[in-house]
Amino acid sequence: MKVLEAQKLKKTFRRGKQIVEAVRDVSLTMFPGEILAFLGPNGAGKTTSIKMMAGLIEPDAGWVKIVNKDPHRNPAALQQVGAVLEGNRNIYWRLTPEENLEYFGVLKGLTRREARKSGINLLERFGLIHKRRTPVQSLSRGMQQKLAFAVALIHQPQLLLLDEPTLGLDVEATEDVKILVREIAASGRAILLTTHQLAIAEELADKIIIIQKGEILAEATTQELIQKFSRTAYTIKLETELDETRILELEKLGADLREKKYIYISKLEILYKAFDILNPLPIQIIEKEQAALTEIFLQIIREGNRNV
Ligand SMILES: Nc1ncnc2c1ncn2[C@@H]1O[C@H](COP(=O)(O)OP(=O)(O)OP(=O)(O)O)[C@@H](O)[C@H]1O
Ligand SMILES: [Mg+2]
After folding, report:
1. Is the pLDDT of residue 202 over 70?
2. d(Cα 21, Cα 198) in Å, to the nearest integer?
3. Ligand number with the minimum distance to the CA of 57
4. CATH code at position 60
5. By mean pLDDT, which of 47-61, 208-222, 228-242 is the weakest?
């Protein structure tokens, strides 16, 4: 089952004489339980794309389907999507968490009773039950963010869209949000999130899409992306120091040595030959160098063309 399908989305804004092609060509598909990180520099078109997927702004071209229904033609599609946009505009600051959940639940088609029950469950799950009668404006940023999640989930949608869910949160609240995202995905919902904190994307996402100037530059599973951009480089650390004969043999192979204990190897073939030379010396660690998502992101954005 496809939870989300977006095809060739396009959106141009006109401000006076100025024309901004915010989204030029965005297509993507999501399946249940998947976490997709939608990454890109400021102004790349992430929020605009999310708003089109959430049915909040009409695309100029292309279409969106949420569990097979187009939110721009069939309002029933909105039953299957929850969105938390920048600045938590999905909650009322003067109302309490309980009131917010009831209000938005009813708006999404639940009865008052269902909304209240589902709301209490979510408040318990998100550790907010003790604040259920405190006006939202008196809650901490982290609590407000968790409430925004709860409101987005009140009608149990299949798709959750999160625009910068950890923006402005402290370390602990960020960890809480990460745990929630994993739990929500584990319950079978698909989650699309944007973030500028690439370590969070690397930790959470199954799949990564990088967008720049309204177009997708790279799309891959997080592992594929990291593998593709990691140079094949291995480090072997020995428990004991190498003898002169082995040092010479390893150097002949093209390995780099440091402090008679560390061996740096650039290719997999050399690694196996090095093992033969090292045998039977005790090895402490073998490590493969991995590219960090930040470097990969910058490389893709700087090259600016589709290469993954
Ligand atoms: N309502 C609007 N009217 C005019 N231009 C807009 C509007 N909304 C967005 N834009 C423009 O569209 C482009 C894409 O904006 P968008 O908010 O989608 O980017 P983003 O990827 O979410 O960026 P950020 O990482 O800064 O949140 C920007 O140039 C922005 O100025
Ligand atoms: Mg944005």
Report:
1. yes
2. 25
3. 1
4. 3.40.50.300
5. 228-242
Strand, coil or helix: 105: helix
Q: What is the pLDDT of residue 308?
A: 62
Indicate the top mutation candidate among 15, 20, 167 to test ligand 1's pocket, ranked by most ligand atoms within 8 A of CB: 20
Tell me the pTM: 0.85
Measured by CA distance, the residue closest to atom 7 of ligand 1 is 13
* End-to-end Cα, the chain, rounded Å: 25
How many residues belong to the chain? Answer: 308
User: How many whole angstroms separate alpha carbon 296 and alpha carbon 37?
Assistant: 14
Confidence of residue 290 (pLDDT cuts 50, 70, 90): confident
Find the 33 Cα to ligand 2 centroid distance in Å.
24
Containing domain of residue 136, as a range? 4-227
Whether residues 256 and 185 share a domain: the answer is: no
Give the H or E element holding residue 219. Answer: strand 215-221
Instruction: Give DSSP secondary structure letters for 230-290.
Output: S---EEEEESSPPPHHHHHHHHHHT-EEETTTEEEESSHHHHHHHHHHHTTSPEEEEEE--
Could you identify the atom of ligand 1 that is nearest to the CA of residue 14? 4
Asked whether residue 307 carries a pLDDT value surpassing 70, the answer given is no
Give the model confidence (pLDDT) of 226-246 as tens digits.
Answer: 888 877 789 999 999 999 999
Residue 301: inside a domain, yes or no?
no
Evaluate whether residue 296 is within a structural domain: no
* Residue 192's pLDDT band (cuts 50, 70, 90): very high
